[in-house]
Amino acid sequence: MPISAAELLSAAYTDADRTIDLRRRLHRHPEIGLQLPRTQAMVLEAFADLPVELTTGKTTSSVVGVLRGARPGPTYLLRGDMDGLPVHEDTGLPFASEVPGAMHACGHDTHVAMLLGAARLLADRRDLLAGQVVFMVQPGEEGFHGARYMLEEGLLDVVPEAPVSGAFALHISSTLESGSVNVRPGPMMAAADQWRMVVRGRGGHASEPHAAADPIPVAAEIVLALQSMVTRRVDVFDPAVVTVAHIEAGSTSNVIPDTVLLEGTIRTLSAERRADLVASVERVATHVGAAHGLTVEFEHEEGYPVTVNDPGAAAGVLAAATELLGARASRISPAPLMGAEDFSYVLQQVPGAMAWLGACPPGLDPATAPANHSNLVVFDEEPLPAGVALYAWMALHALAG
Fold it and tell me: Of 296, 345, 362, 395, which has fewest CB within 10 angstroms of its CB?
């Protein structure tokens, strides 16, 4: 490659003030979901002085930028998500959220800032690119399927003569050593599905349970049966997590209610296990209910698929991290995370990888630091230029010609 890793990293740190300034401006004004007009406006402003062809989403506040290299070639995609979470920030940072009940608790503000920093580096080096870079700036990652909407609007074919053939995304983490790049081949994050069930019994007086059909002990039995199902029927080498996160029943102490509501999630690392677990949760719940003469109504909502890293792409990320940051910063993640990511939709269609950038604040232990999604989470800003350089390096390597 005509540019050295040291030169690229130096350029990213020289531009660090702009990267951090954009991150902090985004952090002060988080928006949630698929419609993020203020965030979109800041992204468009940041792209404005770059030679990037911009389009905005029809159904969401997405932004797609295309940077064309000096020579024809393939198209490589870089993703940054930009939505916040419905969390009230309690960090006390001088640039803390100014929006009550909303916070960039998952670090998406850093993702956008790093992606825009990479766009500036790549725009200055267009003569090194044989092909196109697509900058995917997406809303609605936090459960709203934003990537799927962008794909449905033709994201991968935004350059018709050269559809996207590779992709990379970076995600920050407060519970990994600052400056480390963490990735693994194969499953990186889980599929996550939501389920809801209603146990229907017959209400009555608390003094006469025999005259009612109490759904509460049946619901409790279902919870325990689901845990036994996982530990006794799921192969530990193709794991699953079934969580009951919400139980609601009754209104007072002396009335047996008619119904119990249970809600939770199913997390899996393969399509086969995913289908099996959905069917198993429904089967166990309905059969436990039937054993007591009660009915169980089960609903399943499909969430994000498994995030699967292409082995070659994951190896490329490790090599890039080594070149840019040294061997100590380049790390193979020991196991997948059971959280979910909608970059999985992109990786279902093109080979690529998602990696984690460690950003545990100085003085904190990664094992105990407030984690992503916490109202107390803080991300070390020092490694953001390293993330900028990594984004840029991945595109430069893919389009080196």
Answer: 362
Q: Which residue has tokens 């070659």?
A: 312
Which among 287, 315, 168 has a CA at the least distance from the CA of 229?
Answer: 287
- pTM for this one? 0.94
pLDDT band at 19 (very low <50, low <70, confident <90, very high): very high
Which residues make beta-bridge pairs with 187? 308
Rounded to an integer, what distance in angstroms lies between the CA atom of residue 358 and that of residue 51? Answer: 31
Which residue in the list 53, 263, 282, 381 is annotated as catalytic?
Answer: 381
E strand residue ranges, 219-336: 240-249, 255-256, 259-268, 295-301, 307-309, 330-332
Q: Which domains does the chain have, with CATH numbers?
A: 5-189+306-398 (3.40.630.10), 191-301 (3.30.70.360)
Name the 3-class secondary structure at 378. coil
Neighbours of 222 (CB within 10 A): 25
What is the number of residues in the chain? Answer: 401
Cα-based distances in Å from 186 to 172, 327, 347: 19, 21, 11
Q: What is the mean pLDDT of residues 240-250?
A: 97
Residue 1 banded pLDDT, cuts 50, 70, 90: low
The single-letter DSSP state of residue 16 is H
**Quick check: is 149 catalytic?**
no
In angstroms and rounded to an integer, the radius of gyration of the C-alpha atoms of the chain is: 24
Average pLDDT, the chain: 97
Establish whether 391 is a catalytic residue: no
Give the bridge partners for 213, in sequence order: 202
- Rounded to whole angstroms, the Cα distance separating 96 from 378 reads 10
Give CA 170 to chain center in angstroms. 10
Q: Pick the catalytic residue: 141, 142, 149, 304?
A: 304
